[in-house]
Amino acid sequence: MEKTAQHVMNGLAGLIIIDDNDSESLDLPKRYGIDDIPLIIQDRAFNSDGSFNYNPSNMDIMRGWKGDTFMVNGVIKPHIDLEAKQVRFRILNGSNSRIYTFAFKSGKVFKQIATDNALLEAPIALTELKLSPAERAEIVVDFSNDSGKEEIFIDKSSGKDLFKANINKTASNTTTLPNKLITLDKLTPADAVNTRSFDLGGGMGGGMSGGPSRMLTINGKSMDMSVINETVPLNAIEIWEVRNNMGMNHNFHIHATHFQLLERNGSSSKVAENEKGFKDTVLIPPNESVKLIIKMTDYADASSPYMYHCHILEHEDAGMMGQFVVI
Ligand SMILES: [Cu+2]
Predict the structure, then answer these.
(1) Is the pLDDT of residue 208 over 50?
(2) Dihedral angle of Cα 122, 123, 127, 132, to the nearest 10 degrees
(3) Residues 103 and 159 placed together within one structural domain of the fold
(4) Are residues 208 and 269 in the same domain?
(5) Is there a single domain that holds both residue 152 and residue 236?
């Protein structure tokens, strides 16, 4: 416990691709490494000998540690040669704390087709895509008319280049992104039988008295391995309201399920189109709130409970995590 940030920093993180019949049956780019490219985005700082420089202060822990060098699939500023066709990128923000706003430097439009856990019902056209730590997205970019061009994928938040794509290969097949992807089996708020509230809070004061692992809290409590914070009934549909009571970004991740985002700051209209899919991690900006609908469909007992936590790794290590059982 309290070492997740260090473990991920040292390399203990990856991306697993999960496809299903829906994904396979649609006319999506699906040739791995050719038109179906995983992107694991991470930031690091390096010592002069090339080793990782990671020694966060309490202030770094509070703010979320950020490195000055960006890696894509473990490589600094890589480039890729691509065919002049539609290309799918499966993106993971694998960073400890950094929130990215992904975009092409040219402003090129792309289509988001999937959120953390599933395809979206329809592609959403975007010019930028914000992902907080552990959030995933799949996008399809149409390079059909870009032969001979280069496109630079950037993080607009920091202004840094991430990788360069050279569109210098002839398309060896074509794919046509459908207008309709799937129908999500969404939960209905009227079916919810219970509401839970989670207040994300804390401050440096907690650190003074309890050390760094006690600085941050959910509902006033820091993570305690010996405490089960919530007991959730199996297959019950619930509303979870999560409030960020601090002047800094947090996100909220729930294990072993997916949820739907119903509201931001009490308003369903503030939920972006590309957030209306199945997710397991959601960004909550400073002093904002989200309302989620969730159903736990797997048992978990006290010997191996599930967790919910901020996925800014320094924050979860600082106590912003809780445990729950499903019975
Ligand atoms: Cu946090």
Answers:
(1) no
(2) 80
(3) yes
(4) yes
(5) no
Count of residues for the chain? 327
CATH number of the domain that 294 lies in?
A: 2.60.40.420
Distance 235 CA to ligand 1 centre (A): 28
Query: How many angstroms separate the alpha carbon of residue 33 from the centre of ligand 1?
Result: 34
The CA 312 to ligand 1 mean position distance, Å, reads: 5
Same domain, 74 and 215: no
Q: What are the pLDDT digits (tens) for 162-183? A: 999 999 999 999 999 999 999 9
Residue 201 bridge partners (DSSP): 217
> 303 and 245, same structural domain?
yes
The reply to whether 153 and 255 lie within a common domain is no
> Are residues 43 and 313 in contact, defined by beta-carbon separation less than 8 angstroms?
no
Residue with tokens 């066709």: 85
In terms of Cα–Cα distance, which of 291, 269, 294, 263 is closest to 280? 294
Q: What are the pLDDT digits (tens) for 98-155?
A: 999 999 999 999 999 999 999 999 999 999 999 999 999 999 999 999 999 999 999 9
| Residue 243 Cα to ligand 1 middle (Å) | 11
* pLDDT tens figures, 1-12: 689 999 999 999
Residue 109 belongs to some domain of the structure? yes
Ligand 1 centroid distance, CA of 320 (Å): 7
On whether the CB atoms of residues 13 and 94 are closer than 8 A, the answer is: yes
The closest of 217, 238, 240 to 322, measured between CA atoms, is 217
Instruction: Using the mean position of ligand 1's atoms as its centre, give its distance from the Cα of residue 14 in Å.
Output: 21
Decide if 184 is inside a domain: no
The alpha carbon of 238 and the centre of ligand 1 are apart by a number of angstroms equal to 23
Q: How far is the CA of 120 from the centre of ligand 1 (A)?
A: 26
Domain carrying residue 281: 189-326
Going from the Cα of 134 to the center of ligand 1, the distance in angstroms, rounded, reads 12
Cα 246 to middle of ligand 1, angstroms:
9
Same domain flag for 161 and 193:
no
Q: Residue 289 CB: number of other CB atoms within 10 A? A: 19
Q: Give the type of residue at 127.
A: T
